[in-house]
Amino acid sequence: DTEVTQTPKHLVMGMTNKKSLKCEQHMGHRAMYWYKQKAKKPPELMFVYSYEKLSINESVPSRFSPECPNSSLLNLHLHALQPEDSALYLCASRAGGLGNYEQYFGPGTRLTVT
Amino acid sequence: ELKVEQNPLFLSMQEGKNYTIYCNYSTTSDRLYWYRQDPGKSLESLFVLLSNGAVKQEGRLMASLDTKARLSTLHITAAVHDLSATYFCAARPAHPYGGATNKLIFGTGTLLAVQP
Description:
Radius of gyration of chain A: 13 Å
Largest sheet of chain A: 7 strands, mixed
Helix content of chain B: under 10%
Structural class of chain A: mainly beta
Distance between the termini of chain B: 41 Å
Number of strands of chain A: 11
Largest sheet of chain B: 6 strands, mixed
Number of helices of chain A: 0
Number of strands of chain B: 11
Order of helices and strands of chain A: EEEEEEEEEEE
Oligomer: heterodimer
Order of helices and strands of chain B: EEEEEEEEEEE
Shape of chain B: globular
Strand content of chain A: over 45%
């Protein structure tokens, strides 16, 4: 099973709402990632978790709050977002360590902030 | 800081012809990746290139890596409509102490459109 799943597929939220994005993998991968992708742009790294610990935060605003409850699950909690945060949010996972391991991407959550 | 550039940004191809996408990166990297993305979809891994002179082929696509020139190419042979998509290269920065970071730096992407 080489699948990364993400829910929901689509999310529309107001600027005062609180919502969460969920990412799950059952490949035994120990590194998990959140990316943000705007239309016609490359993915931009937001957060990296390695062995369930936050290892990289790319200066993301605090209205985005990541959480890694266990090695298979990654959440992104959203609060007081702005319309410019509307984008495709991609989760990815990797086997971990320093070897040559690919990042497997999930299908993404299309977020619209109104 | 590692920067990755691709060219061209847009490539209109005729079916049956050959084309090349170029990916340049600015500082030392220990891995080079190629991904495909269809409109509204996620990223599909195509190739991972590990070392200087590495060449990988899958169907009509062939990727190569020249670490001395900091250049990777994705060559398309006899383009077909099914290859229409956006292609990204991504490089992994080499850690200053010999290890590697966990992050990928993506190029700007190349939108391929294959015309009949």
